[in-house]
Amino acid sequence: MRLPDEPELPPQINIVPMIDVIFAILTFFIMSTLFLTRSEGLPVNLPKATTAKQQQVPTKITITVDEQEQVSVNRQPVVIDDLTGKVRTLVGSNPEVLVIINADEKVDYGRVVAVMDRVRQVPGAKLAIATQK
């Protein structure tokens, strides 16, 4: 019950908490979309190529050669002498396997050729080199 000497306050809707919630949701969606990029290999600076095109093959094996010339297969470090055996076990009996080489642009050309040579020794492995467009 209202007393007669009280002034009547108009009803108000406070929208500040709603704006805070909307900004929190917006921030969540922005941050989550930044992590949607999928990278199979380790981060390296890829060389550029004007004729680069995307490969669509269901099974991929990624070999990364980083700036320090360390070789890794699917993010697992491996010695270059064991590379052929590791790729052979990953390929198995699947004839449609694409082996992608992610080599940093500063890596020695001979090191990349050595990796390519080891991959070519595996029957059924198709070879590709990752570049930036």
Structural account:
- With 133 residues, the chain is of the alpha/beta class.
- The chain has a domain at 59-129: Nucleotidyltransferase, domain 5 (2-Layer Sandwich), CATH 3.30.420.270.
- It has 3 helices and 5 strands; from the N terminus they run H-E-E-E-H-E-H-E.
- It has helices at residues 16-34, 83-91, 109-120; strands at residues 59-65, 71-73, 76-77, 97-103, 125-129.
- Strands 3-2-1-4-5 form a 5-stranded mixed beta sheet, covered by helices on one side.
- The longest helix is centred in the first third of the chain and has 19 residues, at 16-34.
- It is rod-shaped, with a radius of gyration of 27 Å.
- It starts with 15 loop residues before the first helix and ends with a strand.
Count of runs of 4 or more consecutive helical residues = 3
Summarize model confidence as the mean pLDDT.
Answer: 82
Rg from Cα: 27 Å
Low-confidence stretches: none
| Backbone shape | rod-shaped
Which fold name corresponds to the CATH topology of the domain at 59-129?
Nucleotidyltransferase, domain 5
Using the coordinates above, name the CATH class of the domain at 59-129: Alpha Beta
**How many β-strand stretches?**
5
SSE order, one letter for each helix or strand: HEEEHEHE
Instruction: Give the neighbour order of strands across the main sheet.
Output: 3-2-1-4-5
Q: Give the amount of beta strand, in percent.
A: 15-25%
Helix content: 25-40%
Class by helix and strand content? alpha/beta
Query: Architecture of the domain at 59-129, according to CATH?
Result: 2-Layer Sandwich
Note the quaternary state here: single chain
Question: What separation lies between the terminal Cα atoms?
Answer: 74 Å
Largest sheet: 5 strands, mixed
